[in-house]
Amino acid sequence: MNRELAARLLASLVLLGVPVGVLLARKVTTQHVAIHGVMADNGGWTPGTIEARVGEPLTLHLTSDDVIHGFAIGQSEHPAVDVMPGAWTKTKLVFARPGRYTFYCTRWCGSNHWRMRGTIEVSGPGAEVATDSAPLFVRLKLDLDAPHPSGVVPTRMPVAARGTEAAMPFAWSLDEYRSRSPVALFRTMRERAPKSVTDSRVWDVVATVWRDKTTAERLAVGRKLYRENCAACHGESGRGNGVMAAALAASAGTAMAGMTGHTTASPTDFTDAATMLGASPAFLHGKIIRGGMGTGMPYWGPIFNDTQVWALVDYLWTFQFAYEWTAPPSSASP
Amino acid sequence: MTPRDRRNLLGIPVVKALLHSRWPQLVARLLALAGLLVAILAAVVGSPVGSHNIGIVLVWIAWWALLILLILPVFGRGWCAVCPIPMPAEWLQHGAVLGPGGPGIGLKRRMPAALRNIWLQNVAFTGLALCSAVVLTQPRVTGWVLLLCLLVALGMGLVYERRSFCRYVCPVGGFIGLYAQLAPVGLRVRDTSRCASHTEKTCFVGSADGFGCPWMLFPGAVVKNTYCGLCMECVRTCPHDNIVLNLRPVGADLCQPRGRRLDEAFKAFIMLGAAMVYSAVMLGPWGALKAAAYEIGSQAWLQYAVSFVSLVYGVLPALFLLSVAVGKRLAGSTVPLRALFVALSYALVPLGLAAWIAFSLSFVFASISYLWATVSDPLGAGWNLFGTAHLGWQPYVSGGVPYLQAAVLLVGLTWASVTARRISAEQHAPRVAPRLALPVAGFCLVVTVALMKLLII
What we know:
The complex is a heterodimer.
Chain A: H1 3-29, E1 33-37, E2 45-46, E3 49-53, E4 58-64, E5 69-73, E6 81-83, E7 89-93, E8 99-104, E9 117-123, H2 136-139, H3 160-165, H4 174-179, H5 182-192, H6 199-212, H7 216-229, H8 231-234, H9 245-250, E10 255-256, E11 259-263, H10 273-276, H11 281-290, H12 306-316
Parallel strand pairs in A: 1-4, 3-9
Antiparallel strand pairs in A: 1-2, 4-7, 5-6, 5-8, 8-9, 10-11
Helix pairs in contact in A: 5-6, 7-12, 11-12
Chain B: H1 13-20, H2 22-45, H3 54-75, H4 78-82, H5 87-94, H6 119-130, H7 132-135, H8 139-159, H9 164-169, H10 171-180, E1 185-189, H11 192-197, H12 202-205, E2 206-207, E3 210-211, H13 233-237, E4 243-247, H14 262-283, H15 287-294, H16 299-331, H17 337-345, H18 348-367, H19 370-376, H20 401-427, H21 433-455
Antiparallel strand pairs in B: 1-4, 2-3
């Protein structure tokens, strides 16, 4: 063979073969579902929507293109996995029922971390996963965006243990408890109680009622959820002073990055009795699942199941009431 | 074999056969081209995470380590002999891949006289250095920069003669040439009178056996390694077997008075200053400085850029000029200050290379382990070609690196001081030469202490 011709063939092989070979190999070998995560400001998850079939294993290969992220499926027992920059994490999912599932980031990767979400559309036989089309706040026709001042506040943090000692038995059904605010109960009891009973003691009774509607186990679940998902903005102490709060406050009233028409506000201070005691559990439940429109507060409906949301609501009251738990009351609701 | 020939590596039949044949070089260059294409593709379409993208790891860790720690100190411009960047342009110019053959295409113009120096290389390197914090860490940027180099080399090859890009523009070629003066090998002619009497000058114009010097050099006039790309074309075209590849004392070119130039002098300052700035930005504890270097186009970056340029083109040359002026006064020298400035700046060449070796040691041993994982998964696509994709980051000899760095810098300082003394002695009596060299050695000492502080302490 002519030497020049051989050299040209060799050169062509490199010039054309290498690029074509590399790109082809990449295309062929990335047939698995590869999901790249970047901070929400730069695009979040790619792809953002995945399709799957009921009962068929879905193997996801996850990688981060910037910082450490986490991956979890909302309302699912599937354990969260870390998604590391440049490395690949494999996780296998099997869906028993069709429906729309939300996957989300579990690591605080930035001020818009909560926007790192995507959906998995699962098709196939069976009843779709139930979605509560009429949560309690809808049934109660609550306006989640309306102010809810308590009007009256205790002079000190109500203590449930003291309320037990007050000998002012009061029974509320679970629905009544969830649909009424602490201040509503306070006003009712204030009217019934003798004048010799101080306001503080009445508040203690309110704290007792609120305590009796939860359990230590549920509070533990709520605390864990709160620390993992809420504390970054609202602060571990509930004062609205989490690590992301300053950024939200600085941009309050302005449009969120990449979200025209959406504004942010300073995170709610759960220790502020003037607003918290005027809210009902149903109101807080609604805020959590729907999010705070125009405030930057994420919607957690697709992420937490109902039990988790109520556990979180229960925990939020601990910023107002001192439960000083000794033993789970027998009247605790399920 | 004469005693003189004993230094000639081409006197070894195997070496001569390897270098004379076009095939080994072509294969090496094609392998390098394949590596370059993989690096560009990986950088552009692979993982955006630098440590998991072979574009970054191959170019800025593996290649850089090879270049600075091995190829440059031992073979000088050896890399230029296998560099793939000018290959497509050369193929078009030659109309052939292997050897002389086709008519080729291209205008084959000479570079304008005003640009036939390394000022463009100085500017190109400075520009790259100002953006290096991003270029070295962002795969996409690395990919586009490499592609840009490839395209500029191609474009220049179609307009200008031979390897004008390599000689006058390539930002890497500039400092490779400067430091190639230190290499223990050099391509020269055996007998200059034979070159003078050789009327055909096939080494320059080419022949059926090879191309005219791609670097536009006449081998008979070559006294320094600076612009010889070791392409071996003259070995192939010389009909008198008059080309030798000498083993010689290291740094022999520094004391060659011919061919000293201001653009090369400034290259020495640029490289020395850049090593200091890189050390501060990439290894130092100053977050604001790092942020400024990364935020290209921002106000902070503009301040960083102005400071960088002022340091390498202003402060360092000014301080060095002051040292030379003091030395000139101490020695009572009648040699013009400018001539002394240019000549003595060559004393900075060994110190500059030592600074770059010391700087490179700090991250090469720390980061080379990224290579094991990325060769198995070059695009960051989840592959495991060689079963090493799972290997994590593992720094090597981290405890010994500071000692190595200190040793290298001290060798550089000593070598620079000795070189300054030798250059001083070229035009001055042995009694006064040390007086001229002393302030220059003091300058080198200050720079070395600063580098030690930045790199080690």
